[in-house]
Specification:
Elements: H1 6-20, E1 32-33, E2 37-42, E3 46-51, E4 60-64, E5 68-71, E6 100-101, E7 111-112, H2 115-163, H3 185-190, H4 201-214, H5 227-240, E8 242-244, E9 265-268, E10 276-277, E11 283-287, E12 293-297, E13 306-309, H6 320-331, H7 338-343, H8 347-354
Parallel strand pairs: 10-13
Antiparallel strand pairs: 1-4, 2-3, 3-13, 4-12, 5-9, 6-7, 8-9, 11-12
The chain binds zinc ion (ZN) (3 copies).
């Protein structure tokens, strides 16, 4: 008998409430993990998310607060899409009289919703502010926005770690079953995948130069980490950070495809980062108003199935060749998901293409 149990209905209702909630009074500091969501280690693919029981289409699976986030908008002074710098807020700071810019004029991209957010973020931003004043302009002009954004996100991770905002208070209650506890805070960041060996030499050499020039263990950062550990952190951040877009990423292939819109931020999420990629994902993801990453099942997910997201906008990269080229250049792997495998040309076709003369 196919019936929806009250428990499922309650869970779907919880999803709906979360997704439609806009009140600021709800608690933005909490992550939420579905009781059936597990992480495990696959012998080939490494870490992955799975469900221990069947999940219904539309169920909320994960709401994860960022460990660190940065805004990535043009013209921040006029934009409605700049994220509040308070790492406990991460909302888009409304363009009102309440919005606060940095009194030290570090960069225009640093804003807070109001004086409360500014005050709360003071201990962390003071360190970041000195770094931005010293390096932001020269990094931007010498290396461009991409490297600046990457380094700034690393500095946000390092300053959050230094101030110790997350580590003690954000741990999810441990689970006693299957050892499926999700790490939180800095411990989770340290266990993300990605190492210098997984990146091309020229990239690693470039990042090493940036670390030596801008991320040394002295003032203002004084992070207390070895250069090699900071380099390893960049390798993990580059493999795991999320772009923040206004609309969902990973709409199921059978649904009408919607462009996800213009990127307004980038963030690192301790648990959401565990999800692997599929070109036919069973999860769609989107940031909520607090910059938390929200995972929702886009179809029924049977017990034991891996939960995957799409790492890119599937409506923009459609053909197998385009998808593979994009994943290879941006994420360093050849996608072997079920959709890619099914779309691979039969091996004879490859041969005929390679030896056109044989067709004559
Ligand atoms: Zn705020
Ligand atoms: Zn500042
Ligand atoms: Zn694929």
């Amino acid at each position: 008998m196919q019936s929806t149990s009250p428990a499922v209905e309650q869970r779907l209702q919880a999803t709906k409430e979360h997704l439609t909630r806009t009140a600021i009074s709800s608690s933005p500091e909490a992550s939420w993990i579905h009781p059936y969501l597990r992480h495990s280690v696959h012998p080939v693919k490494g870490r992955q998310l799975q469900v221990s029981q069947t999940i219904k289409k539309g169920e909320l699976l994960l709401v994860d607060i960022p460990y660190a986030a940065i805004p990535t908008v043009d013209e921040p002074l006029r934009s409605e899409n700049v994220l509040c710098s308070n790492s406990r807020c991460n909302r888009k700071a409304p363009l009102t009289a309440e919005r606060v810019s940095c009194p030290n004029n570090c960069i225009a991209d640093v804003v807070w919703c109001n004086e409360d957010c500014h005050r709360m973020d003071q201990p962390r931003h003071t360190i970041e502010c000195a770094w931005l004043k010293k390096f932001a302009a020269s990094i931007r002009s010498k290396w461009g926005e991409y490297d600046f954004g990457m380094l700034w996100l690393i500095v946000r991770i390092l300053t959050t770690r230094t101030v110790g905002m997350r580590d003690t208070q954000r741990a999810c209650p441990p689970r006693d079953d299957q050892g499926a506890e999700f790490k939180a805070g800095w411990a989770a960041i340290e266990s993300l995948c990605g190492s210098p060996e997984s990146w091309p030499h020229d990239k690693v050499r470039h990042w090493t130069a940036l670390v030596k020039k801008y991320l040394k263990d002295n003032m203002p950062l004084a992070h207390g980490m070895a250069m090699s550990d900071v380099l390893a952190l960049i390798c993990r951040e580059e493999a795991n950070s999320f772009g923040l877009y206004p609309r969902e990423t990973g709409t199921s292939v059978s649904e009408p495809q919607m462009v996800r819109g213009e990127q307004f931020g980038a963030a690192v999420y301790p648990r959401a980062a565990i999800a692997n990629h599929s070109c036919d994902p069973n999860i769609k993801h989107k940031p909520d108003i607090y910059g938390r990453m929200v995972f929702v099942a886009s179809r029924d997910i049977p017990q034991g199935e891996e939960c995957c997201i799409s790492y890119f906008d599937l409506s923009q990269c459609v053909d197998l060749k385009d998808r593979r080229a994009h994943l290879q250049s941006s994420f360093r792997f050849v996608c072997g998901c079920l959709r890619c495998t099914a779309e691979e040309p039969p091996s004879e076709d490859v041969l005929w293409d390679a030896f056109p003369l044989l067709e004559e």
